[in-house]
Amino acid sequence: MTEPTAEQKIVKILSGKGNYLHEAELPDKTKFLISMPSKFRRNVWIKNGDFVIVDPIKEGNKVKGEISKVLTKDYIKYLRTANCWPEEFDEVKNEVSNRPPIEDSYSSSSSSDSE
After folding, report:
1. Who is most buried in 13, 29, 72, 109, counting CB within 10 A?
2. Which stretches are tagged as biased composition: Low complexity (predicted)?
């Protein structure tokens, strides 16, 4: 595992936009498009809320970066111990973990239907 270089940024995936493009967010809430390189396509799946390291694309007008690493839980833990993890993303994690559990409406209705 390596730490991000000075040019690389850790971003949060907000949504998939199609054609291997994703909307991403920096710790300062700046949003922009990033692309998934062909080496990850059909091998790695990214969902909303995942974190990645991106390399900037200087000549890009709409697409501002390219994914260089997809961060796993272990990788994120390593980055936290190396003091490379943005504190703003810790707040996002706490907000998500404090949400109440989603109840499954199907399981409660199916038991009442059978008499």
Report:
1. 13
2. 104-115
